[in-house]
């Protein structure tokens, strides 16, 4: 149902805000006028409480849908945002967003029918992230659509439209463009730093995608950033929120702070002295919704102290309730057709197929010396590397629970069941990390719940508290102990190679589990038992405590115990675990006597193989949002070294030295410097974090069932490239638009299993003024033996413009599918007044220089196939 009061609203409305014949703004204003000041303040925070006397249900505005409905239990997980951007496929992005919004609406109706209105159960989604990925070291760059403002705008508009729907009256969901506007790391400093780009960089790089989503995408909401911009908090900035967003762009939606960013205004930025002053400043400058608790506590205080007028509060709150009403929350469900989306869409077969298709289209073939596609007749394939069989390598961050995630080694095995596929992890993901995923889980055949029943696995008792007290809320048999939960997720967001979650009754945080049963060692000797957890864990063997780490930690960490075990004996084993808050996970693993090292396992597998598929790179465990764990090359979720981690470089070189052909598959959310691999390996693929069907999609490409056509949405730099300082927001030397060096792989790069020809470039001008459009046309032909896609890219380059500006800029792209021998005319249209502008700092306005410009059409920013110069006269 749309809201708790739907039945009562179906009758004749008693009050104006209940009258569906009135417009939403009028109804919202009437409702707000009936609230007390304290009620108003509480309604301006993300977790807004119920107001029973006004029939206002509780609502939490905090919901996530970066690449699938996140942190709300089972949902289809599509490739990470950076991967979807690599598809350069705007229509497909729209399909994905529509699927996500279908699942989100259906899940909300299920939650609401149960009276559940908490976090991650609503209709207001804090996606997409359209910050510019200006520096490859930023850990959250994986959430973006890359380094180019035009690509980001096109992908962002498609995503917003897919989320918000096409109903002229009711929105399907609310999308949120974040983080407005100059925000891309460093993560460790995000609550303190002041970004001061040049006015040209500000207007030519950091603002355009936001403007596109506001003007063209009609995005419902905008989220401010944590940092300052030109001295003002981005979440309380007159320049950003009042002057640009509202006055210049005509934004009609609502603005929210990033979480606890209003607190930063006084606590970290020290722009004001008290929380009530921070609340007043933010509301006055246009932030209606506070993720946090500052507004609820201090908006009423600010009004009573005369720092803020109640009329300003009413105006802000009216915007928020207008949005809720536009989502149908206060109307009978029969009037809101989105409420009829069936629950069956969630994790449907159609969405699973769509996730696989998007993963296929996102894969970028960086290099191929003829090794790919692999023959299906290959006898033995060694799949080696730390992310080959790790579900976390599929997901990135901000994800839901996939029903059956397919890792890359699993995908390869399913693609060629007749082949002998060997797997070895080979090495840890990064140096200095006691890798909790490196040791093999204890298999079900070596565990039993008791000698009496002999059921394989361990008996799991789940408690709704941290100390294993009272009666368990859930009891079940778990075949293995190897679980991971996403940060801030409900505990049914459990992931262990697709296993279902604990079930209802287990809280999101502060739960505990006891597993008990018997351990059945297959051979006699010394075993290395390992438990890993975030947070506390204890292991008992025959009643003796052998591992004791009962404490809060901020990451998965492993502890070991060496024990002498005899074959044929059954040992009582008990593992106790508790989660405090946020990230959660637990594993029970071992190494048997005489087990080979992970490196030796890898080398033995390679020795037996006809071809080696190395799968490595990064996961969301080492790059991400404001992380507290540092490793060599990583700091706070960002990277200090853009190379492949040393552990993996060493393994890769050993594998190549065997003389076996090696294909490298990279899982990553950012650019990696793989200079050695480019020089020495015959084939390199970038799979990004490819979502729940990532393993299937990678196998599709490896064996030729899918012809790769993904393109890099970011520049891959060489390992010895001296990048500008990470905290410098100048664009000089950054991205393909301003970088003067030679990239390892350029923006827009991506190969195919077929060849495409470009011919017949023609320009047609409607007139000579900057306002007159120019049409660019050419013929694309598939000159190879396979069907495939080509991403045709249009760049504009200044040749003799009066003022310095970017080297070139993307102003059009189309992904075209052609059969062998087929040709197609491709056309683009651009307008100089929009597409050739630079920002005149003196006039504080956009301008077009007279002079010569070059139209470039090609397969990447560096692989230009056709070009033609034209002139712009002074107006």
From TrEMBL:
<dbReference type="InterPro" id="IPR013783">
    <property type="entry name" value="Ig-like_fold"/>
</dbReference>
<dbReference type="InterPro" id="IPR017853">
    <property type="entry name" value="GH"/>
</dbReference>
<keyword id="KW-0732">Signal</keyword>
<dbReference type="Pfam" id="PF01915">
    <property type="entry name" value="Glyco_hydro_3_C"/>
</dbReference>
<dbReference type="GO" id="GO:0045493">
    <property type="term" value="P:xylan catabolic process"/>
</dbReference>
<dbReference type="InterPro" id="IPR001764">
    <property type="entry name" value="Glyco_hydro_3_N"/>
</dbReference>
<dbReference type="InterPro" id="IPR002772">
    <property type="entry name" value="Glyco_hydro_3_C"/>
</dbReference>
<dbReference type="InterPro" id="IPR011658">
    <property type="entry name" value="PA14_dom"/>
</dbReference>
<dbReference type="InterPro" id="IPR044993">
    <property type="entry name" value="BXL"/>
</dbReference>
<dbReference type="InterPro" id="IPR036881">
    <property type="entry name" value="Glyco_hydro_3_C_sf"/>
</dbReference>
<dbReference type="Pfam" id="PF00933">
    <property type="entry name" value="Glyco_hydro_3"/>
</dbReference>
<dbReference type="Pfam" id="PF07691">
    <property type="entry name" value="PA14"/>
</dbReference>
<dbReference type="GO" id="GO:0031222">
    <property type="term" value="P:arabinan catabolic process"/>
</dbReference>
<dbReference type="InterPro" id="IPR026891">
    <property type="entry name" value="Fn3-like"/>
</dbReference>
<dbReference type="GO" id="GO:0046556">
    <property type="term" value="F:alpha-L-arabinofuranosidase activity"/>
</dbReference>
<dbReference type="GO" id="GO:0008422">
    <property type="term" value="F:beta-glucosidase activity"/>
</dbReference>
<dbReference type="GO" id="GO:0009044">
    <property type="term" value="F:xylan 1,4-beta-xylosidase activity"/>
</dbReference>
<dbReference type="InterPro" id="IPR037524">
    <property type="entry name" value="PA14/GLEYA"/>
</dbReference>
<dbReference type="Pfam" id="PF14310">
    <property type="entry name" value="Fn3-like"/>
</dbReference>
<dbReference type="InterPro" id="IPR036962">
    <property type="entry name" value="Glyco_hydro_3_N_sf"/>
</dbReference>
<protein>
    <recommendedName>
        <fullName>Beta-D-glucoside glucohydrolase</fullName>
    </recommendedName>
</protein>
<comment type="similarity">
    <text>Belongs to the glycosyl hydrolase 3 family.</text>
</comment>
<feature type="domain" description="PA14">
    <location>
        <begin position="453"/>
        <end position="607"/>
    </location>
</feature>
<keyword id="KW-0378">Hydrolase</keyword>
